[in-house]
Design goal:
Length: 496
């Protein structure tokens, strides 16, 4: 049976479907290694055309000049169309990413559409800001009447945005670029990961269906040369990227000569602090549950498990028992709880770090290998290390796989110090019976978000982003659109 959207073999540029310069490239299911479709492969000429189409649509098209309500109406049609295709999008994610179905239907598909709905609601509340009236001396008539004046702050779209996204939550990442940028009045060239192109190409079909003006959303594919074009061309005003910190740094360097605005959602090595008074069984099950999400391929997953030494042995045993209950396999089976890594190269990276952990003297509690009986696909076991110190590479580097490191501590101050001793600062978590103390500790963690005792379970209404090497800027939340807007102050006299 054909996977939905995998029949798309053309690029979406200027509102039209364009035959790719470099033909097509096979896209495989990481669980079965079978080919799910042939994705279009753009060349530099087509990336150039996409940037030209986006520039033309911004400079001369209707989209930036439309009112916020008018754009919101169009984007609501996008949300409605995506809601209607939820089941098909989920089938695609299962095949393209290999993500377990219980994660796919919520985190991979339903939540991203809800983020769009939230952004539309917030956009409709956007208004110009009128500042307090000023009374100032008239520099041209010092002895005459003073001047009365006002200021209005208006927000305008940044311009043409190039968006480059990763493979782990592709539909979410693509929609997290498209939603605020288009609502703000920008135009866009979207380039997805070569591993997950169809999760982006489907948005071309949706754009066509809802009547999005030509050139507002352009979707191309490609590798490093095509990505470099999107980061260096003077026709692009802003680059928005989600991926590793190393690539993020390279993008900043590429964007610097043309002084583009750069928005970066990057990696993490988040810490989960389990205080002495925490419910050990609950905390351990939660930690293992986090690690199993998309086989640990999530930048915000807490992979450093900071556990008070008085309960660390009990926590380690409970976590080991919980890990044994995680069913690994092909996500086409709805009972599977953890699917594969995206490709063999990623599995080799994870296995390299597991070897480093052993060499450094950490205690392997469970996992560390490949699940028996799964000969096809890029599967790995959920792996837990105990007796980890924070200076080990498994505790400092982003592994991007289901590998957890248990690190002991003896005081709250020590836990905070360990949590903050990282070059990343994306997320954090605290488990404690003392919510007030936990809240105070959350204020001290240098990260863009912290979940206290499990958090709320959603991030539709909250800004998310990183400190340090975890990024620049924020996604989601009531001011999401402002990442894609300029502020302009208009000064004017009053009373004459």
């Amino acid at each position: 049976m054909t996977t939905p959207f995998t029949q798309i073999d053309k690029l979406f540029i200027g509102g039209e479907w364009i035959t790719p310069e470099h033909g097509v490239e096979a896209v495989i299911n990481p669980a079965s290694q079978t080919v799910i479709g042939q994705a279009p492969l753009a060349g530099e000429g087509q990336v150039d055309a996409a940037m030209g189409a986006a520039r033309e649509a911004f400079d001369h098209g209707p989209w930036p000049a439309m009112s916020m309500d008018e754009r919101a109406d169009v984007m609501q049609r996008m949300a409605d169309a995506l809601f209607a295709r939820q089941a098909d999008i989920a089938k695609l994610i299962v095949a393209e990413v290999g993500c377990a179905q219980h994660i796919t239907h919520t985190m991979q598909v339903a939540n991203p559409i809800q983020h769009l709905v939230s952004a539309i609601r917030d956009a409709r509340r956007e208004e110009d800001e009128r500042l307090p009236i000023d009374i100032t001396p008239n520099m041209f008539a010092p002895g005459g009447p003073q001047l009365l004046g006002g200021t209005t702050v208006v927000r305008e779209p940044v311009g043409v945005v190039s968006a480059i996204t990763g493979y782990n939550f592709p539909f979410l990442l693509n929609l997290a670029k498209v939603s605020p940028a288009l609502l703000a009045g920008c135009t866009m060239v979207l380039k997805p990961s070569p591993y997950t192109p169809f999760s982006a190409m489907l948005l071309g079909q949706i754009a066509e269906q809802i009547g999005l003006p030509p050139g507002v959303l352009n979707i191309v594919t490609g590798g490093i040369p095509e990505g470099r074009m999107l980061c260096t061309d003077e026709r692009v005003d802003m680059v928005s990227f989600t991926g590793s910190d190393g690539v993020g740094a390279a993008i900043m360097e590429q964007a610097a000569p043309t002084l583009k605005k750069v928005h970066l959602e990057l990696g993490g090595k988040s810490a989960m602090i389990v205080r002495h008074d925490a419910n050990v069984q609950r905390a351990a099950a939660m930690a293992v549950g986090f690690l199993s999400v998309n086989a640990g391929q999530g930048c915000a997953i807490p992979t450093r498990l900071l556990v008070h030494n008085s309960i660390r042995p009990a926590f380690a045993e409970a976590a080991k028992a919980a890990a044994a209950q995680i069913r690994v396999g092909d996500a086409s089976d709805p009972t599977v709880m953890m699917g594969p890594l995206i490709r063999e190269s990623q599995r080799q990276k994870v296995e390299h770090y597991i070897a480093l952990g052993k060499q450094a003297g950490a205690t392997l509690l469970c996992g560390g290998g490949r699940p028996p009986g799964l000969d096809a696909g890029f599967f790995t076991e959920l792996t837990l290390f105990d007796n980890v110190t924070n200076d080990m590479r498994i505790a400092q580097d982003e592994i991007f796989g289901p590998v957890g490191c248990i690190i002991g501590f003896d005081s709250d101050d020590e836990a905070i110090a360990i949590a903050n001793a990282s070059r990343f600062g994306l997320n954090g978590a605290i488990e404690t019976a003392d919510a007030a103390t936990g809240y105070a500790m959350a204020r001290r963690i240098r990260a863009g978000s912290v979940s206290l005792n499990g958090g709320t379970g959603t991030m539709s209404y909250a800004p998310i982003g990183g400190y340090k090497r975890s990024g620049i800027g924020r996604e989601y939340g009531p001011h999401w659109l402002r990442e894609y807007q300029h502020e302009k102050s208009i000064f004017y006299p009053i009373g004459r």
